[in-house]
Amino acid sequence: MSESNKSSGKAIVFGLMPLVVLAILVVVILKLGDNKELMPIEVPPIEELVVKKITLKPHEIILEVMNDGADDITIAQVSIEEAFWNFKMDPEDKTLSYLEHGTITIINYHWVEGEAYAIGLISRNGVTWEAEIPIALETPVADAKTFWFYVILGIVIGVIPVALGLLWLPLLPQLSPKYLRFLSALTVGLLIFLGLDTVAEGFELTEELAHSYNGNILLLSVAVMVFAILMMVKNSGKEKIADSEDGLGLKISCMIALGIGLHNLGEGLVVGSAFNQGDVALGSELVLGFTLHNITEGLAIIVPLAACKPKIGKVLGLGLLAGLPTIAGTLIGGFVFSLFWAVVFFGMAAGAIFQVVWIICKGPSLRTSEKGMAIPENVAGLFAGMAIMFLTGLLT
Fold first, then answer.
1. Percentage of residues in the chain with pLDDT exceeding 70?
2. What is the C-alpha to C-alpha distance for residues 131 and 293, in angstroms, rounded to an integer?
3. How much is the pLDDT for 236?
4. At a CB cut-off of 8 Å and minimum separation 6, what does 209 contact?
5. Can you give the pTM of this predicted structure?
6. What is 49-133's CATH number, 3.40.309.10, 2.60.40.1890, 2.30.130.30, 3.90.1150.10?
7. Is the Cβ–Cβ distance between 166 and 174 less than 8 Å?
8. Residue boundaries of the structural domains of the chain
9. Which residues contact 314 (CB under 8 A, 6 or more apart)?
């Protein structure tokens, strides 16, 4: 065996040795943790249960739950409005281990449409959890009528508003460089507000997410990873569209549309989930607010195209990239809503949006040769963009 092969073998052994020892240590710790006799004091069971979804069917209430604590949980009793009720559960032994999911079905309960209900879950050790049904409505089923309802919702919230914003494109070539810088800064303001709003909405969802998922860290980690990946793609040779102003403008518009599309996917999830849970008032309010809010997104997409003459097909493609994810969001939120994936999507949107802000600020569209970026039209545009998003956001 050559000297180089011996050195390589030693390097592999020394590289794997700490990992093997660490794995053994983890196994020992887990085994000791399971042995209650070795504990110096008696530790009470740690039981944490998360109600992930409530489905209402005629004469049935179905709860999807997950064990979010370290110890096993056995569900002993279920109550509705402080009255105990018959139920069945999957798994049949009614016991959930760590991160295990289960389904609790309250049978032969004649709930009344429009009423509110408080549900109590009691474990074998006496730990209780509560779940609420604000307004009892039968959960929509995945039929053709409901499918098209959610599709139309997505079109109204995302596709149409973005398309209306794109109609300002013919106006842009007629503006002077000063006003174009103002609009570029306005775009940055819109995107900064949109990015912060995305993070805020994601944090709201993490409050309802199981603690085991570390929702806040998950959201920020996904945002950072997406930011880094998009920067890597931008700097790779394969993705260099062109060094011309036209190519750069199209690339930036594409990235803006992608970031907005991911954000709109999250908005669709929220709206679809509201209607799925029977909160029609909240759902209608969100539809109105998001529709007005999203008109400005079309403007943000077309501003980088001011110096070029893109084909109508490319402009429509950008609009669809930003708007169509809303339809996917309403469908997912309406039929198979998942808090975990909602947080992931909001993190992806935040990372994509802030990456676009970084690119625009590093580019030439906000700069003059004499004063750089510190000019009145940039400051005015930045504040105007954030003010527009704030005022339209008041409707949601």
1. 85
2. 32
3. 67
4. 215, 339, 340, 343
5. 0.77
6. 2.60.40.1890
7. no
8. 49-133, 144-393
9. 250
